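Q: Make up one entry.
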Amino acid sequence: MRADAERWFRQRTSRAGDWPVELLKERKAGTSVSVVLPALDEEPTVGRIVAGIVDLAERTGLVDEVVVMDSGSADRTGEVAAAAGAKVVHRDDVLPELGSHPGKGEVLWKALYVTGGDLVIYVDADLTDFGPHYVTGLLGPLLSDSGVLLVKAFYDRPLLDVSAAGGGRVTELMARPLLNLYLPELAGVVQPLAGEYAARRSLLERLPFAAGYGVEAGLLIDTAREHGLDAIAQVDLGERSHGHQNTAALGRMAATILHTVAARVGLPAEATLTQFRRAHGHIEPVETVLPTVERPPMITVPAYAARR
């Protein structure tokens, strides 16, 4: 690991247990917090996560609003989330004059328009073992150091067929080698693609949001480039369990992330991915057009700027 990455790792890494609730309550005064769950067909898990965050909010006052951004679910995701206490917003109902694009980056970007928190925490809606430390751990560095703008989570994934302390398959097989090669200053980030992270609105509203699953990598790279490594911190949240996608789906995810990183390091990248499947005894190609449309910084959207 390069010297700057190692220094950052040692100075900007903490554990969820380092940030007790009472300490955070003392430091939150005057700061509002929004928790956002991007969701697409997460009926089995979203209700329990929302209920846990609502309970934390009522017990501690550390959370001011909980918003589930529905990315076009075909199940009862929205109904279950609302029953658990979340405000549910469909992506198509936000800034409709700008249209909608599929993918995670779209709903995270639109969440900025419908939330009001000074700090925004993103939590994936497919977690099967959510605990309040997911919120308190991510809040800690932001409430304790004004120089920290973005906080990434990391965790063990004990059910994976890779090192539990590493990232998921896409991270270990593609994202980490790619970042180490082209952006070695980020080598100390344990899980660059983690879906759990928190940031100051003042940062998020001034960054572009990459399409689809490229959003996490894009925000991480852009924050480091615009504000330096020390604007980023990371927190160990222990263990994380969630649903898993098949290899073909992970390939499409990896291709989207690769396209996002390539755009930021000046490499040409195709916007299509060719995969293969067997049908009726024959192999045939399957073409996927990658989501590549990036949303501009939200502060440049007149309707948002007027509200702020």
Remarks:
- The radius of gyration is 19 Å.
